[in-house]
Write a structure and sequence with these properties.
- Helices cover 59% and strands 3% of the residues.
- By secondary structure, the chain is an all-alpha fold.
- The chain has a three-stranded antiparallel β-sheet.
- The longest helix has 25 residues, at 3-27.
Length: 319
């Protein structure tokens, strides 16, 4: 009497595994996913300023620099202020790099501000002030890596490129690979899969890039995926496999309180508010532990975010 349930259970498990395998195999060429995902995007995409036609390629580039490791809600006010002040690359290039750091505010990872300033200067010098269209030219700009080059080429110019951010990688890991999370660092296998999933049509490919990113940001989230609202839930290999828990290396978590990052942020906050060079005593007042404070300040100087002056004074960089 005990053999029947065992057989049924085994048969059910085999069926589910086969369904998940079929889903992964069917999704590998992307054709089963393109329509549902882009249709969902057309209906549910957020109205974000960098997605509007008037944003142009410069607006897209600014957004991509700001959105790295920073949520949309924090980026929006800074983005709008930035574009109001520097609507073209030439406008930013004409200012001191320290002004970019000042305007960056509390977005975090302020070296991105220096890189964006350097990119704007290169755009002005090499491309007459216009963000280049070619992927290779974008990739040659200071501070622009493979992801940013692909994102600007795709989102600003409608070109066919695989755009792999954290959200997209998570969607592909679940929908195709059947895993809860992607690897900690982007792998060659992920890049190959992204190319396989990319639609041949250039316009559809650009929409697909934006749509998969939005799907990961809104529904296929890291902590609480909303599978019931997902347009490809019926084809998702991870869901069909029973949503197995992550079994790979521990996922990296970021801490902030008490770290050098926090100290750097406090030191920069003083310098951003100042209109004249800041004395050492004013910086000493923001953090009690002298060794960590000195280490953080040295790091800011080494990164080019702070310029030391004579007499123990500091300022945001002018060159």
């Amino acid at each position: 009497m005990t053999s029947t349930p065992v057989t049924t259970t085994a048969t059910t498990a085999a069926t589910e595994n086969a369904s998940a395998a079929d889903a992964a195999a069917g999704a590998a060429d992307g054709t089963a996913l393109h329509g549902p995902v882009t249709d969902w995007f057309d209906e549910h995409a957020r109205d974000l300023p960098w997605r509007r036609p008037e944003a142009g390629a410069w607006g897209v580039m600014v957004s991509e620099f700001m959105l790295q490791q920073t949520p949309v809600s924090r980026v929006l006010p800074v983005y709008e202020q930035w574009l109001a002040r520097w609507p073209r690359p030439a406008d930013l290039a004409a200012e001191a790099p320290g002004e970019a750091v000042r305007a960056w505010g509390r977005l975090g990872y302020p070296r991105r501000a220096l890189r964006l300033h350097a990119a704007a200067s290169a755009i002005q010098e090499r491309h007459g002030g216009d963000v280049p269209r070619e992927h290779s030219q974008l990739l040659a700009l200071p501070g622009v890596g493979e992801y940013t080059a692909a994102a600007v080429a795709s989102f600003a110019y409608g070109q066919r490129h695989a755009v792999l951010d954290t959200n997209v990688r998570r969607v592909f890991a679940r929908a195709v690979a059947g895993r809860q999370f992607p690897p900690n660092a982007t792998t060659a296998a992920e890049r190959k899969l992204a190319r396989q999933l990319l639609p041949e049509d250039e316009n559809l490919a650009a929409r697909w890039a934006a749509a998969t990113m939005e799907l990961g940001a809104l529904l296929c989230t890291a902590r609480a995926p909303e599978c019931g609202r997902c347009p490809i839930a019926a084809r998702c290999a991870w869901r069909l496999a029973g949503s197995p828990a992550h079994d790979g290396p521990a996922r990296r978590t970021q801490t902030y309180a008490g770290t050098d990052r926090q100290v750097r942020g406090k030191l920069l906050a003083v310098l951003r508010e100042a209109v004249t060079p800041v004395p050492q005593q004013a910086l000493d007042a923001v953090w009690d532990e002298p060794v960590q404070r000195a280490r953080a300040l040295d790091g800011l100087v080494s990164d080019g975010l702070v310029e030391p002056l004579g007499g123990g004074r500091y300022r945001l960089p002018l060159t």
